[in-house]
Amino acid sequence: MYPTEEVPPRQRRWLAGAAIAFLAALGLVRACLYVTPPGHATVVFNTFSGLQKGRVELPGVMFRIPGIETPITYTVLTRVWEFTNDPNSPNAISNAIAVNTADGQAFTVDVAIALRPNIATLDELHATIGENYLSTVVVPLVRSKIRDISASFESEDFYRKSQRMAIEQQALDLIRQEMPTVNRNGQTLPLIEVEGLFLGHADFPQALRDSIERKQVASITAQTAAVRAQIQEKETERLLILAAANQRAIELKGKAAAKNAQLADLLFYEKLQERIQNPTDSLPPLRIIRVEGEATVFLNVDPYQAALQQNVDPHQADSHQAQ
Length: 323
Known about the structure:
This protein is α+β, with helices and mostly antiparallel strands. Helices cover 48% and strands 27% of the residues.
């Protein structure tokens, strides 16, 4: 092979032309390829025929005709957009929504909405609405429906968790109904899929906030008093039932003892045994000296235990008892 300086001029021109052609071909190939990143989808606009309906490219490499076909890529991941006055919110699309409630109160409330473009109808979304669908459709629709729903609720409902959930659900249903749709193959498909709506901070005037908090405290106090009253009523009822049961048991034992002398002796022995096993300070300890016959019991105070209680020498007590 000849050194570079010895290559004939004609051959050098041929090599240069080949290199230029290769680079041009490489650039043309790259221009014909377009990559849709993950979490996105692409529609294609043709310079001569307009938007290509029915063509939605999923993540990956697609072929296009340079200068004629222009790809437009949308983010199709679910995102949460906020209506808020917080300047530090990264997803804010509008200011907090001013509402008027059924009790004549006016304040602003933060709202968050989770949505994404529908991949199946992305071509129709681009054709009828365009890339600015958030500002042209979502923002005015959400603000309108939140105001409509708020007019049927009172200001306190924005303070209560259960009622806030009801407001969110009703607003979500209305927004879904009003979102633009397209009819395909006999099915009505939304252009934008709304997955959730959440009420955030309600900026109540200070006087209204104080009034609501006082009502909440009074309500909790009243509920607590009602619960205590129910508990006391149940306890009283339990004690009455227990007293009636004890009285009935005594009556039944008395009737049975009156009919059966042996049962009367058994009941007496039970009470006596309980006193012997569980002596109290108010009653002196007992012991059985002897039993004669079938129903005659002779009792005496245990001199040893009695002496201990009275601080007397037990032996003196036994002598005195023997006398």
